[in-house]
Amino acid sequence: xxxxxxxxxxxxxxxxxxxxxxxxxxxxxxxxxxxxxxxxxxxxxxxxxxxxxxxxxxxxxxxxxxxxxxxxxxxxxxxxxxxxxxxxxxxxxxxxxxxxxxxxxxxxxxxxxxxxxxxxxxxxxxxxxxxxxxxxxxxxxxxxxxxxxxxxxxxxxxxxxxxxxxxxxxxxxxxxxxxxxxxxxxxxxxxxxxxxxxxxxxxxxxxxxxxxxxxxxxxxxxxxxxxxxxxxxxxxxx
Length: 238
Hints:
By secondary structure, the protein is an alpha/beta fold. 37% of the residues lie in helices and 19% in strands. α1 (28-43) packs across α3 (70-94) and α5 (142-152) packs parallel to α7. 43% of the residues are buried.
């Protein structure tokens, strides 16, 4: 067994991580690529839980702009996260990684209901648990769901997977002079309005002293380096 800094992680993925080049839908090749990353981490001996967003299937903002009820839009997004969770579960199990999907909205024919103690037991048995349907309540993002589930399962770190190598003071794709932060405090993230996670999620992590690590999921070695405690990405802590 390797020497690891983090033994149990909550991996927060965007829905767009499953999409094709146009940013929408579910691309099986992308799901397989993520499954390969997760399998590598499991083979290191790390316990893994996942929360995934739904931006590839449903953008609630578009509905709201047309006058849609906010709660209805949020529930639609929650249901879309379960679709993404099932797609990722399929890719993981085809890679021979035991996986369970738990949903905060009951739909017993396709997913287990979310039960904290059962989720922890699955994780202890080496299964990857994917949490779907957010918190089960409107007005909360999947960022907040990730923070909540991470605290509930006693994760060592919440890893926010992105397509950049950390948190910058501005968009590095638009500003070549953008400054990357190696470390940040929770209060800095909130005060600077940095787009790490929403303020509710950051506050929940702060209150429970849960570190947030932002890494580039598409760097072939970044996740493994982070789990060994190497200096990579951006660490948000006290």
